[in-house]
Specification:
With 487 residues, the chain is α+β, with helices and mostly antiparallel strands. The protein contains 16 helices and 26 strands. Strand 20 (370-372) and strand 21 form a beta hairpin. Helix 3 (69-75) crosses helix 11 (325-334).
Length: 487
Amino acid sequence: MPIYEKIIDLALRRNIFFPSAELYGGFSGYYDFGPIGAALKQNIISAWRDWFVRKGNALEIDGANTLPEAVFEASGHLENFVDPIVECSKCKAIFRADKLIEEKTQKTIPENLSTKEFDELIVKNKISCPACKGKLGEVRKFNMMFGFSVGPKGEERACLRPETCQNIFIDFPRIYKTSRQNLPIAIGQIGRSFRNEISPRQALLRQREFTQAELEVFFNPNRTETEEFEKLSNYKLALQPLGSKKISLIDLKSALAKKLLPSQLIAVYLAKLQQFYESLGIKNFRFRQLDEKEKAFYALAAWDFEVESELGWIELVACNYRGDHDLNSHAKGSKQNLEVMDLDQKVLPHIFELSMGIDRTLYILLEQAYREDKERAYLALKPNLAPIFVQVCPLVAKDGLPELAKEVQSRISCLSSTYDEGGSIGKRYRRADEIGIPYVITIDYQTKEDRTVTIRDRDTMTQKRIKIDDLQNVLYCLYSGTDFSKI
């Protein structure tokens, strides 16, 4: 069975994620996260917040999901936030033209080609309807935004945001004025985004409602040097520059000297992003530089942070140098001057963006953490990401062991834990392994005699006896990354 199918099967069986409105047959492009998935997702979000907000000194906001249509008219989304679609003349099924061509040619097709170019590629590659083999019609552009009227009379048009960043851009003047910080200033937000995808598929990888974590760095384009660059100058990025089919490990200093990256500031934030994913345990990644036809309409330069998957290279983070497009557009749309004083200069800040898909990151974590051996399947998640940190089990559900086990659990209540006394201890170990619980504490008859318990390590299945009085300190060490063999 392919790994993707194993992950979907595991997700459904163990309440990680599943189709929304399943009772009514499901709702295409929408997924709910069960208790295990919600905990894992929150741990990813907490890791992002710790890395970029707390340690990275970014400011975090929480903006509205719904914004006036005027915001998206100014930003260019009403005109440019489109996908190419094509309809079958026979069965009337609708498909994304770029994806159809990619599946046939096994080549990446930019989604912002002209409709004429798409039509020519469909004819050249003799592509017909995948459903009925009928002839495809002409390609047209489809705006993916959800729009609606607000108020009892429908007097105001609004849209669900297709990305979380517009809140940050329009809130910037107030935040900059009140935060008493100088440029560069990073503002982040985690929240829901909404896109009317033509053909949602591959579970969490292409949804109509999803969670993003976006970081927007506002900076003076005349001052892009940063103190952090010297500390990171020898750190190597996995870069795939324009025109190259290979991934090269290039240190920041060399990347700047070769003009592969435009500034110290952008180099530093790409390094921070790669380090973040390394801290999650993610492997096999690259920064693929996008050409003129691939990058978004607002980007001066762009890199996609992609991870190799069984399904191909999956984009997890869009890294866009947006220039002054956003503040300039909103200055015109709102008829307000959005320039700010940066020390002795009055400037309209430029913006560098890290736009991360949380749900996609969760899927990749599951795929890369999935392990199988002759006895079991398990998720080798890092302890700080695991949905539950420790499971407490009485060896048997009698002779006072359950009561003693619950006493032990109450002692570690500040850590994420669960209790399980159903079935054999072996089956309970397997259930814990399958959802990535790093450690299982077992209370047995020896516990009654000497107040010790066993701790079992998920990855190695080795066990050690620990005094109950030492248990909390030992678990804190394990949570902080101490190797199990060293406790």
